[in-house]
Amino acid sequence: MENSYIISLDQGTTSSRALLVDKNGQIIQIEQEEFEQIYPKSGWVEHNPKQILESQLRVCHKLIESTKVDVKNISAIGITNQRETTIVWDADTGEPIYNAIVWQDKRTSEYCEVLKEKGFTKYIRENTGLVVDSYFSGTKIKWILDNVEGSKEKAQQGKLRFGTVDSWLIWNLTNGEQHVTDYTNASRTLLYNINTLSWDAKLLEELQIPRNMLPEVKPSSSIFGEYEIKGVKIPIASVLGDQQAALFGQACLKKGEAKNTYGTGCFLLMNTGKKPQYSNNGLLTTIAWGLEGKVTYALEGSIFIAGAAVQWLRDEMRLIESAKETQQIAEDLEGENPVYVVPAFAGLGAPYWDMYSKGAIFGLTRDTGSRHIIKATLDSLAYQTRDILDAMQADAGFNLKRLKVDGGAAANNYLMQFQSNLLNKEVVRPKSIESTALGAAYMAGITVGIWTQEDVLESKNVDQVFEPTFTKKQRKKMYKGWKKAVKRTMNWDNNKK
Ligand SMILES: Nc1ncnc2c1ncn2[C@@H]1O[C@H](COP(=O)(O)OP(=O)(O)O)[C@@H](O)[C@H]1O
Ligand SMILES: O=P(O)(O)OC[C@H](O)CO
Questions:
Q1: How far apart are CA 41 and CA 399, in angstroms?
Q2: What is the pTM of this model?
Q3: In this predicted structure, what is the pLDDT of residue 460?
Q4: Of 35, 40, 355, 390, whose Cβ has the fewest other Cβ atoms within 10 Å?
Q5: 200 marked as part of a ligand binding site
Q6: In which pathway does it act (predicted)?
Q7: Are 341 and 486 in contact (CB under 8 A)?
């Protein structure tokens, strides 16, 4: 145990990362590689599964080379991943039969309407904890089977495998020996019963998905297989969806504790303890993790576009050269900003769940410049978070004292201060905003006996606490403007209404 390390593989929406974590929970080194985002049609988002795998393997091996770590000292690998993204591959050849359909993809919206019309809303909510939305894997699997020639027959014959990104990686890391996933990833498929912890026969039947395509589901803290590096077999000792991993990495181990991760999207999760709590306000009920024989549940508010809106400013609008510069631009723009950006580029997630909403900019006048739009785009991350937090507090029946934050855009001081002002709460940022990767590492460390849950609780170092400074009047006025703007984007793209 003297020189014990964990490798955390963090397969995100825009990049694959590998982190080396030492036995004190310190990050020694991070390697990262971006990969291609494929947009074949409006509202469609795909990844090449081979690029996901190859970039993930490259950063893993680069990490070992750059740190010169002795692989014999790597005690375990933890995997955390973008959730819901759907891959179907041939069991014999291991070849994907279609690109990965990404969580943001909206192509199955119409079929979701059919599910709603057939009366599945209540059933899905009570059994999977989810809402009927194209976000989740189930309808994406159905789309692949309906649209890739010959796939339905192959699936019936047991010749196809489905996996979220974790399953795809593990299948390949173990040379096709293991077809597995964990509770957290399964709970995002629309096919998994979170009460009985089993695949749901009624939903499989409705979506015409053969049971034999689906992976075995294990607790997040388990041995999922072994990955051999330089002749050393390293156990894969944790798997968690990235948002659940961040909840664990932020040490939200007690009921009522919450974190918000500002990445491509924004995901606010609250630990709700050992029983699923259902929302009356458009939030999801999901599995937080399975650990030491127990299942912990969470309430989740999912925002589809957060940091991605900042990428849009950079790549499509070309108003900035880097995400980082938005902080200074927003801080320099004094006074009230009458502009609102609603980044509903992939519809609206919680609490609105409107697949037909489209993005819009409101409040333009003759003197509006790029600075106003940039600032309003950052503000939109905070407004969307306020929407979720209001819903969560209503469901929980109590008010949170503080919000723990992490993810790439949590580095932005302007945004964090505005967030605190808008929530009228402390916003607490840890020294390392790599909570996702750390969560998977901690969980793997617990599985192989390097750490305990108490060690995780003691691991948190605060970088900065942002304190609210707005008056009640200011807060109310600004939030009212946001609600008005959101309302006007809703149902925009629905031809039926
Ligand atoms: N300083 C910053 N200010 C605002 N947004 C930022 C900043 N740094 C990164 N981002 C945004 O955060 C996202 C990257 O965060 P990350 O946690 O790595 O995302 P993911 O895991 O979803 O790929 C990008 O969408 C980027 O635009
Ligand atoms: O890759 P991220 O960090 O944007 O997370 C994606 C989420 O898991 C989607 O549900």
A1: 42
A2: 0.91
A3: 67
A4: 40
A5: no
A6: Polyol metabolism; glycerol degradation via glycerol kinase pathway; sn-glycerol 3-phosphate from glycerol: step 1/1
A7: no
